Amino acid sequence: MLKARVFAGSCLLGAGLLVTGAAHAATEVEMHSVSTDGIGDSLGTISFEDSEHGLRITPDLEGLDTGIHGLHVHVNPSCEPAEKDGETVAAAGAGGHFDPEDTGTHQGPYGDGHLGDLPALAVGQQGEATLPTLAPRISENDLAGHAIMIHSGGDNYSDEPKLGGGGARVACGVIEG
Question: From which residue to which does the signal peptide run (predicted)?
Fold first, then answer.
């Protein structure tokens, strides 16, 4: 009888720990292809989760061009095309890079520039991106009410060429506020 009580107590204690010790769910955003015509098909998701070393970014994407792509948090929660300098631009509704400190500089995820500068996204030979990265200066709380953007080209984390050379906006997702 004592063994049964100990076992039952252990199960209840374990269940209580499971509930109270459960980690929160990661923030997940569905990413879509974008063009001057609007928002296209889903390419998969990117999950964001705080860790003791910064924001863990875990992509689960397919259908992108092989290579390195710029990845950024943009100011506005929109992936719609908009007019910029007299031309319609894919996902321009997202605005510029998230820069709450108004640094006006692009120094990458480890520098003191735009907070929205995230580590570059690596896309494999089959168009898939699954390699997790870490952004040490930003947290999940910073993402709400903003867009996540994937650019066509790599990112050299500098202001030359403009915004690190990321190029056109090819995929976008919104994290609601």
Answer: 1-25
